[in-house]
Amino acid sequence: MVTNRIADAQAETGKALDLDPVSPIFTIARAEASYYAHDFDATIANANLTLEQAPHFVLAEFWLGSAYREKHMYPESLQHFVTRPH
């Protein structure tokens, strides 16, 4: 993703998820790759999956809020950027 090879990043996250389909770090990496590909619906889906696997995972909250922001869904975005008790 750093070198803007988004398709390669998506392929690599797919391989990682094949090895460990319930890894929150791999599912959030997929969300991040989707975000940079401007596929915000996929970002939201993968970030939500990550939160199902690991509630309150801060990177999932970040990418979920970011994707909602890009879709101009500001109230939903703010829900993931505002600190709340766990």
Report on this model:
- The protein has 86 residues and is mainly alpha-helical.
- The protein has a single domain (6-81), classed as Serine Threonine Protein Phosphatase 5, Tetratricopeptide repeat, CATH 1.25.40.
- It has five helices and no strands.
- The protein has helices at residues 6-19, 24-36, 40-53, 58-70, 74-81.
- The termini are far apart.
- 30% of the residues are buried.
- The model has no long low-confidence stretch (mean pLDDT 87).
Q: Could you list some keywords that capture this structure?
A:
mainly alpha; globular; Serine Threonine Protein Phosphatase 5, Tetratricopeptide repeat; 86 residues
What's this entry about, in short?
The chain is built from five helices and no strands. Helix content is 72%, strand content 0%.
